Amino acid sequence: MKSILIYLILFFSVLQASAQATREIFFADVTIYVEGGKYYLTGSKGGSSGPPGFAFLESKDLKTWAVPANSTDSLGMILTKGDHTFGTKGFWAPQIFKDKGTYYLTYTADEQTVLAESKSLLGPYRQKEVGPIDGSEKNIDSYIFKDTDGTYYLYCVRFNKGNYLYVAEFDLKTGKIKPETLKRCFDQTEPWEATPNYKSAPIMEGPTVIKLNHKYYLFYSANHFQNIDYAIGYAVADSPYGPWIKYKNNPIVHRSIVGENGSGHGDLFEGVDKQLYYVYHIHNSSDQVSPRRTRLVPVVKQWDEKAGVYTFSVKGKEVIVPVMAEK
């Protein structure tokens, strides 16, 4: 009788785990926008259903998500291919921000960075003039940062025998960079940025930038996304252009810390509870990369008095697995 009971407990545990896995969220290159006590998640949809573009999911607790109740689209689409938007394929790596009552969505399509806008958080996000931010050459993974003096900067990835992070001053009114300000952030210099598990050209991507106490913190991912050691680190500078000093204890998000392969390319945000979080994606399984799964992890920010900077780490035992609400 006891053995039957143990079997039943194990059986139903497996069923429960399987049910949760089917409800998991499969967005990659993820970002979360916080407004009105709610969280709004979007990212690269990969092979999921629906038209190419970006969709929103909404949550109050970061754990259970659903299409926003007041969305005008049943799939929660906020930007759709062909709806006054640039791009035919490869809709990746979105970021949402707000300025003077207008919401902006920057993203990648056709290996170009793009800016669209909307008067509503839920979209639809469109372009007045359809086109990329800078069509002079390929550039992906856009992140638009507003400095405390009101100046905007575009951080993105450009290709030059590898993927490298670049920064340029950005004019929000015209939606263009100032080409004369374009500068590479840094090179691949650390062992963790190029592990042998998947050989590739140098890759640094997925930027997020914040400013604290007159210092700039640039969070980024390194290694090829198919590498099990795809991971996240950060660098610090006194200027939006650098020079950047990489944190000595990088990476701060890695499979050895959060327990899952391919943990990278996400965004840093402050929760309703004032806790910092990092949202990112992982590989689908130990032997399969896609479709990639979404994860969140609490971030610890500590002041280093001697160095005069903040240090960041994550609570690797407190990873959140976001799931879709049961219908």
Automatic annotation (TrEMBL):
InterPro entries reported for this sequence: Glyco_hydro_43, Glyco_hydro_beta-prop_sf, Glycosyl_Hydrlase_43_Enz
GO BP of this protein: xylan catabolic process
A GO term for molecular function: hydrolase activity, hydrolyzing O-glycosyl compounds
Active-site residues per Swiss-Prot or TrEMBL entry: D29, E205
Residues with site note (Important for catalytic activity, responsible for pKa modulation of the active site Glu and correct orientation of both the proton donor and substrate): D141
Keywords for this protein: Carbohydrate metabolism, Glycosidase, Hydrolase, Polysaccharide degradation, Signal, Xylan degradation
Domain of life of the native organism: Bacteria
Entries under Pfam families matching the protein: Glyco_hydro_43
Signal sequence, start to end: 1-19
Similarity field: Belongs to the glycosyl hydrolase 43 family.
PANTHER family, sorted: ENDO-1,4-BETA-XYLANASE, PUTATIVE (AFU_ORTHOLOGUE AFUA_2G04480)-RELATED
Protein name in the entry: Family 43 glycosylhydrolase
